[in-house]
Amino acid sequence: MDSAGVANRALQLPDDFVAGGFRPEFAAVRWGAALGDSYHDMLLMDWTVFQAGIDAEDEGYAGVLIDTVSDSGLRALRSRLSIPVVGPGEAAFATAMMLGKKFTVLTMWPQWFPLYEKTLTEYGWWSRCASLRSIDTRPDVTELLAGKEEVIFAKLKAEAEKAIAQDGADVIVLGSTTMHQSAQYLAANLPVPVLNPGQVAYKQLELLIGLGLSHSKKAFPSPEVGKDADIRKGWA
To answer: Rounded to a whole number, what is the distance in angstroms from the first to the last CA of the chain?
Structure first.
């Protein structure tokens, strides 16, 4: 992703949203999947996000936020690092279950459904998921929703209303951090909470850092034999 794409993603966290004393930095993976539209891409996402994050602790960062609702590389990074690692999928789904009984994941196209099926299965949260719904629109992972708001926002609202009326959803979770530009509009025009996953996950990371908490090393043990040098070879 080029600098413009990274900047669009960084707009998730405006200055007045970030607590004092924190300074989030966005960084693109060095190579990897294009659209996350296949199991092929899911493998690349896990691997390249893991590669991008393994040096965070040594470089002095206080935590890692994975900028995809697929939570790619999450468990592997928790195994490798001692600083907290947060994924938007896990954070947003957990928050949705605090705010309601059933949540719907609202996304751009059905090709992303396997990403949520993976995480919901790993976390054991299918019983709290009302549905997975999409507007069947190919995403633009660089420009995001810019310039397409009038059409895309209306489609997302209509699909969310179906999730509420037909599926029993009482919370809506946006299915991608690339959809963050629609969060404010949907929250103002829907009768249920709308969760912007990147922001939810970031605030969760601030909370963990502020409390001095990180993931359990009993749950995510460190490898006895590290392979950092071999992992970095993939950057060449």
So the answer is: 17
DSSP conformation letters of 118-137: HHHHHHT-GGGEEEEEE---
Q: Which helix (H) or strand (E) holds 64?
A: strand 64-65
Secondary structure (3-state) at 174: strand
Domains annotated on the chain, with CATH: 3-87+199-235 (3.40.50.12500), 89-197 (3.40.50.12500)
49 closest CA partner among 22, 69, 67, 62: 67
Instruction: Write out the two tokens for 224.
Output: 């006895």
C-alpha of 97 from chain center: 16
Q: What is the pLDDT of residues 21-51, one digit of tens each?
A: 999 999 989 888 889 999 999 999 999 999 9
Express each pLDDT in 51-77 by its tens digit: 999 999 999 999 999 999 999 999 999
Distance of alpha carbon 178 from alpha carbon 67, whole angstroms = 9
Burial 118-139 (b: 16+ CB within 10 A, else e): bbbeeeebeebbbbbbbbeeeb
**Over the Cα atoms of the chain, what is R_g?**
17
Report how far residue 38's alpha carbon sits from residue 46's, in angstroms, rounded to the nearest whole number.
13
3-class DSSP state for residue 88? Answer: helix
Half-sphere exposure of 216 (CA within 13 A, CB side): 2
Neighbour tally for 214: CB within 10 Å: 17
